[in-house]
Amino acid sequence: MSPGDEHEASGGYGGTGHTRTRLPDGEPYGGAARRPRNSSRSLITVVGVVVLLIAAIAFANQGDDEPTSPNGGASGPVTSSTAASGEQPVDTESAGIPTGFAHDQQGAESAAANYSIALGSAEMFSKAGRQQIVGTVYAPDVAAARQADLDSAYSSEDFLANIGLQKDGTAPKGQSFISRVIPVGTKATAFSADDATVEVWYTSLFGLSGERSTNPVSESWYTTTYQLTWIANDWKVTDFQQKDGPVPVGRDQQASTADDMTKAVEEYGGFTYAR
């Protein structure tokens, strides 16, 4: 299975999550017909509000006689339980992709997360960008075998038409194409000195923003399992499998207008290092 397989004939990412979505007043995306899709809306805003409310209530109820926790503060989880994990970010890259990961389990997990970002990026729809990505993230013998298949899949006129792109893989005039993977977490299910199996749970944004878009940007959730091997002092992909979910419960949030979505796509850059 190639990364392109996750873009189904419906013109976007597949997925089994169900959600209710309230559209903005009027017709979004230039009044064009919207294709029905199943997608999970982002929980970031909702979670942020809930966290702030909980913090405010806890602060208001805090008293001088409140028992202390092992870390010297109020009762609750210690700081280390929510601290970020992982070694310091790598300081080398190839084709804009982080490389030179640590030769340990954390390094393998970081490599899988960063390779997910690259393989799910809009650059995969450009022949030059795709060749750089494949040559960077895959093991050399696998890259050579996969390049032709990936070029064929990503340059298919039917495939590109289904997701709303032109024959050269670019967005139609007046529209912006977005394809981003945002890792949520990683888990190594097997590890040895030279081989690792790492699961990456992530959310993806995919579609076209702008007037007359028939494939507006939507959100989906996946878990990809990567087979990695240690070659030339770095972790490289030899194979992977993808499945849907886990998918969070969708919230009843109003979808943004085409102008707001286009502005966000242009102003918010993707992450350059994960984990």
Summarize the structure.
With 275 residues, the protein is an alpha+beta fold. Helix content is 27%, strand content 23%. It has one domain (3-267): VirB8 protein (Nuclear Transport Factor 2, Chain: A), CATH 3.10.450.230.
Structure description:
By secondary structure, this protein is α+β, with helices and mostly antiparallel strands. The chain has one domain: VirB8 protein (Nuclear Transport Factor 2, Chain: A, Roll). It has 6 helices and 6 strands. The protein has a 4-stranded antiparallel β-sheet. The protein has a two-stranded antiparallel sheet with strand order 1-2. β5 and β6 form a beta hairpin. α3 runs antiparallel to α4. The relative contact order is 0.21.
Q: What is the C-level CATH assignment?
A: Alpha Beta
- What is the first-to-last residue Cα distance? 25 Å
Runs with pLDDT <50, length 5+?
A: 1-5, 8-84
Neighbour order of strands in the largest sheet: 3-4-5-6
- The CATH superfamily bears the name VirB8 protein
Q: Describe the global form.
A: globular
Biggest sheet: strands, sense, closure? 4 strands, antiparallel
Mean pLDDT: 75
What is the ordering of alpha helices and beta strands? HEEHHHHEEEEH
Number of domains: 1
Radius of gyration from the alpha-carbon trace, in angstroms: 21 Å
